[in-house]
Design the sequence.
């Protein structure tokens, strides 16, 4: 990455062999836009996982052509950032959309099946 002069944060996933690459000074929504614009990545095949609260930019990740899985109860721990919002989540999220699924942490596999990612 440094040889190509790409300034980014590389984060190793705890329980997997994958790396998350986030451009420096960018949000996750901007990172998706970067992958589309720079590398031509097909965003309709991307699945984004967001917590129910605690994420600072989760509202920017809910719309679009990518698929979104909202994890209930995630982000409601002691490090709450935006858990005290003055509006219900239904005002931001269209749960009628085929690209948005709300689920418990233990039901991720069935949620990915609903999105058409796993068969």
Sequence:
């Amino acid at each position: 990455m440094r040889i190509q002069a790409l300034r980014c944060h590389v984060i190793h996933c705890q329980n997997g062999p994958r790396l998350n690459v986030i451009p420096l000074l960018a949000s996750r929504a901007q990172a998706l836009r970067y992958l589309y614009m720079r590398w031509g990545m097909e965003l309709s095949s991307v699945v984004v996982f967001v917590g129910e609260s605690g994420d600072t930019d989760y509202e920017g990740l809910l719309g679009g052509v990518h698929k979104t899985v909202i994890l209930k109860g995630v982000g409601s721990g002691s490090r709450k950032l935006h858990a005290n919002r003055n509006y219900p989540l239904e005002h931001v999220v269209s749960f009628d959309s085929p690209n948005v699924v709300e689920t418990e942490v233990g039901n991720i596999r069935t949620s990915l099946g609903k999105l058409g990612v796993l068969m």
